[in-house]
Amino acid sequence: QVQLVESGGGLVQPGGSLRLSCEDSGGRPIFYALGWYRQAPGKERQLVARILSTGSTNYADSVKGRFTISRDNAKNAVYLQMNSLKFEDTAVYYCNARPNIYSPDYWGQGTQVTVSS
């Protein structure tokens, strides 16, 4: 069973930075895809950024140039460096993993990011 453990959320002022981390505790082969989604109150969960085992990335338009996703294949870990945070980035952020192209999605427990002055 894939178990994703997230850390790094919190409260930050507009323009500030946070770094989210997520790691699988199971010591499995390299995951095909890792990513981050977010869900704001009253809204659907949306993709923030995704990275494949090849290193290929894609980002939501709203975070391009501000957020950077990276991964450590040895740990099946994924990171999200968030800079120049805005009020509208406030949401619960979920780590996502897809071990291979045929597998279902697995989710972390979610971590709250609040941007407030």
What would you say about this model in short?
0% of the residues lie in helices and 50% in strands. With 117 residues, the chain is mostly beta strands.
Largest sheet: 7 strands, mixed
**Helix-strand string:** EEEEEEEEEEE
- The tally of beta strands, per DSSP, is 11
Question: What structural category arises from helix and sheet content?
Answer: mainly beta
Q: What is the mean pLDDT?
A: 95
Cα Rg: 14 Å
N-to-C terminal Cα separation, in Å? 40 Å
Query: Which regions have little confidence, pLDDT < 50, spanning 5+ residues?
Result: none
Described by its quaternary structure, the protein is single chain
Give an overview of the whole structure.
- Helix content is 0%, strand content 50%.
- It has 117 residues and is mostly beta strands.
- The strands form two sheets. Strands 2, 4, 5, 6, 9, 10 and 11 form a seven-stranded mixed sheet that branches.
- The model has no long low-confidence stretch (mean pLDDT 95).
